[in-house]
Specification:
Elements (H helix, E strand, L loop, with lengths): L2 H5 L8 E8 L5 H10 L9 E5 L8 E5 L8 E2 L10 H15 L11 E6 L8 E8 L5 H10 L2 E2 L25 H30 L20 E8 H11 L3 H28 L11 E7 L6 H10 L11 E7 L9 H15 L3 H16 L1 H13 L3 E6 L6 E3 L2 E11 L5 E8 L2 E8 L7 H17 L6
Parallel strand pairs: 4-5, 9-11, 11-14
Antiparallel strand pairs: 1-6, 1-13, 2-3, 5-6, 7-12, 8-15, 9-10, 12-13, 14-15
Helix pairs in contact: 4-8, 5-11, 6-7, 6-12, 7-9, 7-12, 10-11
Membrane topology: Single-pass membrane protein
Keywords: Acyltransferase, Endoplasmic reticulum, Transferase
Main location: membrane
Length: 470
């Protein structure tokens, strides 16, 4: 097992990934079970248990193959919202998924399960909730593996289509002209300088540098508190319209919208108190940072994962938890021009791309794990996360409708819990929509649906502020 996989079993990092999937039709349990047996249960990680060897072998952990009884991994609660009230059904679903954060998984069998809720809600005819322990793989790989079990609704033999990556690797200049060479040298120096600054920032965060206490900041021990999972659909078309108008990336827009949402929510929380004292709605110089996990190797393609499940083979050295992370700041301010949130988001994203911060965190964690042990590595990571405010991630989903053995998926809402943050924000695209998914500690954030409203309102305000074209 990798150091990160071991870390996800530490008491303060008992991380689980949850994916809430809406189905366009009632779920046929027999068909679902047969489909899982033919796909997911054949992957090596999903038919293995984790075994810690005895002290004479250094307490090393290993994956050991075992027989999988798929029916033991299917949970079908007896829940029936009365009266056909979709609002009551939505609340019942939300309460049930929240209850999963209060329970642990049985480590004597592969640590994954599906919960089937066969009643209609406002968005779907039925819902399947996939829960898996984070030690089985990083979020991107696990999401790719899940999607590799699906097929296009329009072509049941074809795997889902995902947008291709747009990579611009750093390379020496093709021309050796002095101007081109100087530009490359300057860019390299800026890259090194940014990395040094980020390393210093990380070291300071691990020792003393803390985020400003806000309503988003969880109390000590928030990783042990139950979480509530809520989600809202926004328009991917609107996000792309902003991207095209402002000549930036989708990620830049999402960072800006998230920053605007946080500012709206906090201005409401602080407003009454501060308006009575100074006429302001937000304290000045709020420091709010998220941790953003970065996979340090290419994620296996869904075609490779589909082949691995079909053959029952591994995906070589491309599977596991090889993770670094970076600290992503979110400006909290009230701008007169809503487009300033996107401009700030683009500046922040461009700055973070121009650094090796994630590589440093991955390699430094590996060094600490190797020389100081598992507990020291866990304590260091916990301290960094505890001194920041939230977790943030953006996932690229399928561009066409997909189905699992005849069950069309109408939405996908993944998230994670078990780490020392009271707020986790996950953004995932699917067809022409974007899901905003929040995992919150209700002791810190008792009104998560209000924060979802702020996401939707912020996107609308930014879109309305775009210059009109004739």
């Amino acid at each position: 097992m990798s150091p990160a996989a071991r870390l996800f079993h530490a008491p303060h990092f008992n991380n689980h990934i949850i994916a809430i999937m809406g189905s366009g039709k009632e779920i046929d349990i027999d068909v679902l079970e047969a489909g899982i047996r033919a796909t997911l249960a054949r992957h090596p990680r999903f038919c293995s248990v984790q075994v810690v060897l005895d002290e004479t072998e250094g307490k090393k952990a290993r994956w050991v193959r075992t027989d999988v009884e798929v029916e033991r991994h299917l949970v079908i609660p007896d829940l029936h919202p009365g009266g056909g009230d979709t609002a009551a059904a939505d609340r019942l679903l939300e309460d049930y998924v929240a209850s999963l954060s209060r329970s642990t998984m049985d480590a004597s069998r592969p640590m994954w399960e599906f919960h089937i809720l066969n009643f209609p809600t406002s968005e779907a005819a039925a819902v399947a909730v996939f829960r898996v322990h984070h030690s089985l793989g990083d979020g991107a790989s696990l999401m790719s593996l899940l999607l590799a079990c699906f097929r296009k609704t329009s072509d049941p033999d074809a795997l889902p289509s995902l947008p291709g990556p747009h990579l611009q690797p750093r390379s020496p200049p093709r021309s050796l002209r002095p101007v081109a060479l100087l530009r490359w040298l300057w860019a390299t120096l800026v890259f090194v300088w940014n990395t040094l600054l980020d390393v210093a920032h990380l070291v300071a965060t691990s020792i003393f540098l803390k985020d400003t206490p806000t309503p988003f900041k969880g109390a000590d021990g928030t990783e042990f508190h139950p979480k509530r999972f809520v989600h809202r659909t926004i328009s991917l078309h609107d996000v792309k319209a902003i991207k095209n108008a402002m000549h930036c990336t989708i990620n830049d827009v999402l960072v800006g919208v998230t920053s605007a949402s946080f500012s709206r929510y906090l201005s409401r929380k602080y407003g009454k108190k501060l308006r009575g004292e100074s006429g302001q709605q937000l304290p000045e110089n709020i420091r709010m940072r998220s941790t953003l996990l970065v996979n340090m190797r290419p994620t296996p393609t869904i075609h490779a994962l589909a082949a691995a499940m079909e053959e029952g083979n591994t995906t070589g050295d491309k599977w596991g938890n090889l993770l670094g992370y970076l600290l992503l700041p979110f400006p909290v301010a009230l701008y007169e021009d809503p487009l300033d949130y996107v401009r700030k988001g683009k500046a922040i994203a461009d700055r973070k791309k121009n650094s090796m911060e994630a590589v440093f965190t991955y390699r430094s964690a590996a060094v600490v794990f190797r020389h100081c042990g598992f507990k020291a590595a866990a304590a260091l990571t916990h301290r960094v996360l505890s001194n920041t405010t939230l977790s943030f991630s953006n996932i690229v989903g399928p561009v066409e409708e997909i189905e699992f053995y005849g069950h069309p998926m109408v939405y996908l809402a993944p998230t994670v819990y078990g780490h020392p943050h009271a707020l986790t924000v996950t953004l995932v695209s699917y067809m022409n929509t974007m899901k905003v998914v929040l995992a919150v500690d209700e002791l810190a954030i008792p009104d998560p649906h209000q924060l979802l409203d702020d996401f939707a309102d912020s996107l609308e305000l930014i879109k309305e502020a775009l210059p009109r074209t004739t």
